[in-house]
Amino acid sequence: MSNRIVETRTVRTFGAPRRDRVQLMNLGLLGALLVAAIALPYLGASGFVVSLVSTILISATLAASVNFLAGNGGMVSLGHAGIAAASAYGAGWASREGFDPGMQVLFALGMTVFVSLIYGLLSMRTSGIYFLMVTLAVGMLIYGLAFRLSSVTGGENGISGIQRPEWMASYWIYYYVVLAAFVAATALLYVVGNSPFGASLRGIRDSESRMRSLGYSVRSYKLGAFMISGSVAGLAGLLAVWHTHFVSPSSAGVDRSVHLIVMVILGGVGTLLGPLIGAAVVVLVENVLSSHVDRWPTVLGLIFILVILFARAGIAGSTRKLFRRLRARRAASPPGDSDPHPTEQHQGKDLQ
To answer: pLDDT tens digits for 108-133?
Structure first.
């Protein structure tokens, strides 16, 4: 009679701490970018460079509001430029009438809430292409009103001479204000996106009928998401008008909303750094490359096509997928182990 004793040798898997390493890498990258951004004015950067980075951060804040809706709710908006323009016009009108910066903020906030509520009420019953068309229609309405209400908006000439608060007068101080606003808006959208509210939005994105059958108020969630996204867009509009000291109907144009969609797709829908990366690409092409190349829209179009063909998840999303594949291959074949299945190895020995 023989007894079989099984001796088991377990090789450590690489999957257990993988998520922790990913989070540490993301936090490290974010920390490095934040440190570089804070140190930018002290690195000898010119006023033009600091102003250009401020423009990128403002555009990234606006793109992040679109990214929040598209990534978590599957709602692609073509009207967020109208929300930002409404906020800018509120601040511009208050400045022209002689109100102090505090009242400018209040008027900008009031216009943001009002316009976002209209957007939300009109679009919460729709989804997919119908949602996109409703937001496009409301955006075009705001664009038309900016032209027609010349007594309020200045018509085609817009409103100029809009002054920001005196303590923000210096370009580098305002840069830090914009940087803080971008970090705060990104953190807010990240927290909301990873909360139960964000999980419910993703459930509605995947199957509205199932979420409705589970007792969720789909319309209320859509309205709430649009109000959150619209508030961030209004913040970006206020920062933009304080940055340029000018607002015109072109701020609410369809082309501006299309640029926001391009930024989100280039960076990666639903990614944390996607709006920043996409905004950097679009703003640099539009403001730097345009001074050297007359057909810069063609260059931007080619970049967009290349990303669609070879990086469908966007620059940030595709980079993340690439690192995941590399880690998976490394975990599947760790160095010094010839067994192609390194998770567990069992060796049995018969002892008579």
So the answer is: 999 999 999 999 999 888 888 899 99
Kindly report the backbone phi and psi dihedral angles of residue 60, in degrees, each rounded to the nearest multiple of 5, phi listed first.
Answer: -65, -35
CA distances (Å), 182 to each of 157, 206, 207, 235, 314, in order? 29, 29, 32, 9, 21
> Would you state the structure tokens that stand for residue 186, as one six-digit string?
């990104």
List pLDDT tens digits, range 176-205.
999 999 999 999 999 999 999 999 999 999
Chain centre distance of CA 322: 21
In whole angstroms, what is the distance from residue 317 CA to residue 320 CA?
A: 5
Amino acid at 248: S
Model pTM score: 0.86
Nearby residues of 334 by Cβ (< 8 Å), 6 or more positions away: 11, 14, 342
Residues 219/124, Cβ–Cβ less than 8 Å: yes
Check residue 223 and report its DSSP letter. Answer: H
- Other beta carbons within 10 angstroms of residue 221's beta carbon come to 19
